[in-house]
Amino acid sequence: MLIFGPVTSRRLGQSLGINHIPAKTCSYACVYCQLGRTYPMQVKRESFFSPEEIDRELTQRLRQLRETNEPVDWVTFVPSGEPTLDLCLKKEIENTKAHGLKVAVISNSSLMGMEEVRDALMEADWVSLKVDAGNDSMWRKVNRPYGSLNYEEMLKGIVTFSRRYRGILVTESMLIKGMNDNESEIADITRALSSIRPKKSYLMVPTRPPAESGVERPNAETLGQIVKQVRGVCPHEIECITGDENEERVFVTDAVVYDILAITSVHPVRESTLRLLLERKRVDFSLIEELVAQKKLLSFFYGGTTFYRRNLE
Ligand code: SF4
After folding, report:
1. Best mutation site among 39, 76, 108 for ligand 1, i.e. most ligand atoms within 8 A of its Cβ?
2. What is the pLDDT of residues 87-122, one digit of tens each?
3. Which domain does 188 fall in, by range?
4. Is 131 exposed, middle or buried (0-12, 13-18, 19+ CB in 10 A)?
């Protein structure tokens, strides 16, 4: 299940996903993680799947998509963990680009202090880096990084990357009520964003069931003040995303169960989205109930909505 989608993404259009990291293999344990808690955490880069295996699955999926005239704008490395932990990331990006496709990578930034990680990301056309905190202590509260990681080293690495990178660099900052949403924390995040100088910074809020209970989005008034504060300092474009990306256009083949488990491995999907998707395939919703009974899917209730996520344990 290395390839999923394409999914309609607000930022990238029709994006085919590559999940090239074993479930929940991450250097962070973010309080808002939609995949649950990270066990165990790691910072050692490894080769998890062979680049050839990933390319074989990608080639097969692209063939299916061509047969059904399904467009693909981007291929995104957005696994159920941190993509830069993959030692073969550079090779995998090169292989993907050889198909004539644009490549995006969504990283948590934690390993940006490493030259080989920056070097691998140089190959991508679009890179998104996480900046949820502008200082070490908030970073440890929100992202709960692996012990040996260092905030200053990471930020220095991001700035170094930004100065050399020729593709599109964006940042994303998750705002959490009562944690990093006050004026002083936002001033620190803004300082970090100004030093990075990305093309665009996305301010986000939790929209799916988080790893820790009590993680909530700031209220609308606070969000408005935050956007004003950040825009007042940063010369680059700032966009606040308060809803989910449009996931109604998730593409599934006739291998419905396989595709549903692939997409729910990387993020929880709303019940309404799954209903639409099954309707298109003329499959009854009881399929989802069966997958829950078999413990292949887990259901969560968050923000008044039921979500389903693959059981990653
Ligand atoms: S949100 Fe991303 S970076 Fe944070 S723990 Fe989850 S997978 Fe890792």
Report:
1. 108
2. 999 999 999 999 999 999 999 999 999 999 999 999
3. 3-248
4. buried
Examine residue 7 and state whether it is found in any structural domain, yes or no.
Answer: yes
Q: Parallel, antiparallel, or unpaired for β 269-270 and 297-302?
A: unpaired
Pair 133, 272 in one domain: no
Residue 107 CA to ligand 1 center (angstroms) comes to 9
Do 177 and 105 sit in the same domain of this protein? yes
In b/e form, how buried is each residue of 81-113, taking b as 16+ CB within 10 angstroms? Answer: bbbbbbebbbbbbebbeeeebbbbbbbbbbbbb
**Same-domain check for residues 281 and 203:** no
Same domain? 28 vs 173: yes
Number of domain units in the chain? 2
57 lies in the same domain as 204: yes
pLDDT band at 140 (very low <50, low <70, confident <90, very high): very high
Atom of ligand 1 nearest to the CA of 27: 8
SS3 of residue 267 by DSSP? coil
Q: List the single range of 168-172, 251-255, 259-263 with lowest mean pLDDT.
A: 251-255
CA of 253 to the centre of ligand 1 (A): 28
Q: Nearest residue CA, atom 6 of ligand 1?
A: 33
Asked whether residue 258 is domain-assigned, the answer is: no
Domain-embedded: residue 204: yes
Question: Closest residue (by CA) to atom 4 of ligand 1?
Answer: 30
- Same-domain status, 273 and 159: no
User: Is the Cβ–Cβ distance between 71 and 107 less than 8 Å?
Assistant: no
Which residues sit with their C-beta closer than 6 Å to ligand 1? Answer: 26, 28-30, 33, 35, 38, 81-82, 108
In one-letter notation, the amino acid at residue 32 is Y
Ligand 1 atom showing the smallest separation from residue 26 Cα: 8
The complex scores an ipTM of 1.00
Let me know if residue 50 belongs to a domain. Answer: yes
Q: Is residue 246 predicted with pLDDT exceeding 70?
A: no
Interval between CA 198 and ligand 1 midpoint (Å) = 21
CA 143 to ligand 1: nearest atom: 4
What residues contact 286, with CB distance under 8 A and at least 6 apart?
A: none
